[in-house]
């Protein structure tokens, strides 16, 4: 329990840094694709961060977000096995997820250094 409490400030900072990843002019449902992709891929940490951001944006229960999550989940599960995408939409989802992962990783590294 003590270990979880000591990590809480770090996770809070990560969440704040990650929430700035999707700019205001970007599609408000990008985070729904990102959380769906990571859920399908099986990355619980990234999925949890993206879910919290989508919830903070107030889109989590929006039908469009649910639909985006479902399609990205299917792709994430498939991509985890094949390592391939087969459409422009899948390529875009992969780009969203890759950008998110890189920025979260950079934020973690900056906190450690």
Radius of gyration: 14 Å
Tally of alpha and pi helices = 5
Q: In whole angstroms, how far apart are the ends?
A: 25 Å
Mean pLDDT: 82
Number of DSSP-assigned strands: 0
Low-confidence stretches: 1-5, 19-26
Shape: globular
Determine the strand fraction and express it as a percent band: under 5%
Largest sheet descriptor: none
N-to-C series of helices and strands:
HHHHH
How many independent structural domains? Answer: 1
Structural class determined from secondary elements: mainly alpha
- Share of helical residues: over 70%
Overview of the molecule:
- Helix 1 (2-19) crosses helix 3, helix 2 (30-41) packs antiparallel against helix 3 (44-56) and helix 2 packs parallel to helix 4 (63-82).
- The longest helix is centred in the last third of the chain and has 25 residues, at 88-112.
- The protein is built from five helices and no strands.
- Mean pLDDT is 82; it is low at 1-5 and 19-26.
- The relative contact order is 0.18.
- The protein is mainly α and 113 residues long.
- It has one domain (2-112).
Layout of secondary structure:
Blueprint: H1 2-19, H2 30-41, H3 44-56, H4 63-82, H5 88-112
Helix pairs in contact: 1-3, 1-5, 2-3, 2-4, 2-5
Structure described in brief:
The chain has 113 residues and is an all-alpha fold. The protein has helices at 2-19, 30-41, 44-56, 63-82, 88-112.
Keywords:
113 residues; mainly alpha; 5 helices
């Amino acid at each position: 329990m003590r270990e979880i409490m000591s990590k809480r400030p770090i996770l809070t900072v990560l969440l704040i840094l990650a929430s700035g990843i999707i700019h205001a002019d970007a599609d408000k449902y990008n985070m729904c694709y990102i959380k769906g992709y990571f859920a399908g891929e099986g990355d619980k940490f990234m999925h949890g961060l993206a879910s919290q951001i989508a919830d903070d944006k107030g889109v989590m229960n929006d039908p469009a977000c649910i639909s985006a999550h479902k399609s990205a989940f299917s792709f994430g599960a498939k991509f985890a096995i094949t390592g391939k995408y087969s459409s422009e939409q899948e390529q875009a989802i992969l780009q969203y997820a890759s950008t998110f992962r890189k920025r979260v990783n950079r934020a973690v590294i900056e906190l450690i250094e």
